[in-house]
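Protocol step 4 of 6: record predicted structures for both targets in the notebook before any analysis. Target 1:
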Amino acid sequence: MPPPSLTAAAASTQEKVAMGSEATNGVGIPHPADSRRRGGKKVHPAPPGGGAGAEAGADGATGSAGEWWRSRRMPDWCSAAGVGGILRRHPLAALFGCGLLLFMGVEYTIPMVPPAAPPLDLGFSATAALHAGIASRPWLNSLLAAMNTVFVAMQAAYILWAILAEGRPRAAMAALMMFTCRGALGCATQLPLPVEFLGSSMDFPVGNVSFFLFFSGHVAGAVIAAEDMRRAGRRGLARLYDGLNLLQGVRLLACRGHYTIDLAVGVGAGLLFDMLAGRYLDDKNVNGGTVSGSRCCSCHKALFSQ
């Protein structure tokens, strides 16, 4: 006779098989009684693991979010070593970041210039002594104006040489864009001529006719010419033009021919329109960066090629 333990195990196994057959009708199809509603609610099978599974289902969203957050790694620059590495590798970016924080505070605390007061220009303040010296010597004012006009003529001559003699139209295209934009802005917003302005008949334009202040075409034209010289490999000549452009800016401030912002935007405008002219010519399949020929017809083909 088998032991009682074996008898109990066999009875339990037979009971489970019988219950499974009853639930599936013996052919693997669930019994209709298993889908009945109890108390108006459909019965759902319990999740694996009993109470632990139910608890995990209740807190599933919180748990998954927590695991996702713990699995995220903080960026390297958030650490002290990361910040130190940025300062070493990108000092210019760090400087501009500090400048952003500085001027965010300045713009909310700086007093504005009253409507009846003259404009505040730090460049005018820095060149006050030079302005007084030029104002007391009209001949010096005319001499400096004449020298500045010669420099403007040098810029124009170089740009024309680049397109007519060397077949490189990029500088000419940039100058056309720049002066057109400058004229439109000068008409749109006409800034008052400084009270201390020192005009001269030797200045360009002659007699200061149609004198637009914003932005400086003198400075922008020199930048365009210098950038073209660098592309052509004339780096020494480009540095010379940069130096003359700096002296030109000092002279314009001392004679009150431009505000400081006119000169700063003139530099940016020269670089911007040089870049835009390059993109335009690239779109037209024109090589504006190398010397492609010495005949005038080559630039015409470059300008009108599609």
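Target 2:
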Amino acid sequence: MPTTDSLTTPMYRCPAIFQGQASLIAAESTRHGGVSPAPYHSLNLGGSTQDDPAHVAENNRRFFAALGVKPEQVAKSHQVHGDRILPVTTPGRFEGYDALITHTPGVQIAVTVADCTPILIYDPVKKTVAAIHAGWRGTVAHIVRKTLVLFESEYGVQPDTCLAYVGTCIDECSFEVNEDVAMHFDSSFKRWDSERSKFFIDLKKANREDLLEAGVRPENVEVSAFSTVLNNEDYFSHRLEKGLTGRMLATIGIAGT
């Protein structure tokens, strides 16, 4: 897979958990290296904004070219904050799925985020990959666990051989919610702040726990050290920027032969 030093290649970062995996292409974009003007500056990769579509197309071309991937190899879905998972064998644009899985070389799957949690999974035994978009609704619907169940039924994947990355999203100290959201989370994933009369939710922790509950080994899980809010100079945050911002991509695939 491509390697990158986060200090010298700011367009994307490659999860360390996947380093050394032959033919695997896995990365998470930042907001740098694109052509979009403010408020989408600069590497806006999401089409669900008011940014010029030509800018978004050029940003996608640049991002995937840096990974050695052609745009026509990419599979994405219009995400709906649900728990539907689609096995794909061909590139394209799909509708209504928040996770994609494949074991087809040359198909690069991707999810779009700007505060929600991206999760990338790779099974080096069955050469199978997953890209998951988990907002708070997807998290409480256990989309991560459901993806691993489908991994096994579709491809015979065993969770204890998988490597997983819980990506950059809104951090716990920034994800302030009311009781109507907090009530869906276990107490270990929420914190009550009496001064602000709000709950704070830890999406990274909740999704990591789902990986472990599904059978992924703790040593095989990496959690991003970055935050869309605290590191907003490098990542887009829908909440912090009040909706007027771009989107990142988290992507994974097996290089074609």
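Step 5 preliminary note on target 2. Confidence is low (pLDDT under 50) at residues 1-9. The domain at 12-254 is CATH 3.60.140.10 (CNF1/YfiH-like putative cysteine hydrolases).
Proceed to step 6 after PI sign-off.
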